[in-house]
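notes to self, project folder thing:

trying the whole complex as one job this time. last attempt i did each chain seperately and stitching them together was a nightmare. two parts in total, labels are on each line so i dont mix them up again. if this works i'll redo the older ones the same way
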Amino acid sequence: MEEETHTDAKIRAENGTGSSPRGPGCSLRHFACEQNLLSRPDGSASFLQGDTSVLAGVYGPAEVKVSKEIFNKATLEVILRPKIGLPGVAEKSRERLIRNTCEAVVLGTLHPRTSITVVLQVVSDAGSLLACCLNAACMALVDAGVPMRALFCGVACALDSDGTLVLDPTSKQEKEARAVLTFALDSVERKLLMSSTKGLYSDTEQCLAAAQAASQHVFRFYRESLQRRYSKS
Amino acid sequence: MAEPASVAAESLAGSRARAARTVLGQVVLPGEELLLPEQEDAEGPGGAVERPLSLNARACSRVRVVCGPGLRRCGDRLLVTKCGRLRHKEPGSGSGGGVYWVDSQQKRYVPVKGDHVIGIVTAKSGDIFKVDVGGSEPASLSYLSFEGATKRNRPNVQVGDLIYGQFVVANKDMEPEMVCIDSCGRANGMGVIGQDGLLFKVTLGLIRKLLAPDCEIIQEVGKLYPLEIVFGMNGRIWVKAKTIQQTLILANILEACEHMTSDQRKQIFSRLAES
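result (full assembly):
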């Protein structure tokens, strides 16, 4: 028997007023998160953003090979498996981005000479994949009880050819966009942990500000989801 | 730009540190900062309250608060590092502000000094047994750490045996070491666990619940069948009853206990008692 906490939340982030032109598609898609759904890993989570779904499992702090051990902190490994085919260079680069984000947040010095492994499986990809992976990784790390100094979330935004900013773009919006930016933000002061950008753009500040506003909703969703999980015990 | 700044300010306002007292029993998330009792007055509403300087400069009365699992000291505040419910225990006697800790649900065990755990012997190298306790490293157990063991009189421990012992050394920097005697040299229930029986794994939170004083589950289970049971703080439980069927029933009940309410449990127990 497994404890499943299925939390649905329809989050809308309306950034109506402001000097920058904002289109009507400025809301985050429907979120859902489920924790502790896998029995083998120490922590697991499934995060759904619209139609994009990622399943994450965390093992740790566990044994580490002597060749990979670090004497004063935990070795963090991220494995990202695409939905079809073998993992390629794109997956490797995403793994590195996610790993750098996790390393900034996880208190690795509490578990030296151990390994913390995050395994992500893409279940369906309909845009904002990196952001969804970051969210799933964060929820899985919390589920596993890995000590962290803050929570983090991923927010993706796409810049149209006429400068319209769309948060949480679908794959169609990503393809037609001039630039796609993904930010990882921490929960304490909404600081920027990681940014991955592709395309032509000139104004990072505006996108970052919009992402910071949207991250508020994501963190609120995290809080509600975790409160619901602990209220059942 | 004015707009993003106001949005940012609003989001930051929610993350101001709260007093630990007000958050007791609530779910706290990693990254939250908690104020200890003696700092609440200093912070105050707004924080910019003028206080008359007292000529009698008394050293601020510091209460010694113990920071338990899930909390870290961050300056003079507590930083929450795990998600769970915040708990507090008043000090029994003497000074001190008690213990604060976060009650979280976890599956992975991290060795802690003084914990009694069930381990599986994985290797025997010279005078040391390597025991798997479910942590990141196997613990070491010396053959002299059994009751009545001497160099001539070695304990009969084979690879694959179950050991119930406690940690004497368990910190993040060293390999954990366990022993099967207490400080007086007596076994006190520790040592090799006998033949038969079933070892299974549950979450750490369930073990703590079962080991709490006045746990109803254990009393009810004891009334069902005569049984032997050993709880390891590393999430492992060993049960043995008269027949294999009874042992399996007990194992299933204990595993399911985590998700059942007390009414459902009572129903199942009454149904089993009848059959």
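what i see at first glance: Confidence is low (pLDDT under 50) at residues 1-14 of chain B.
need to look closer tmrw
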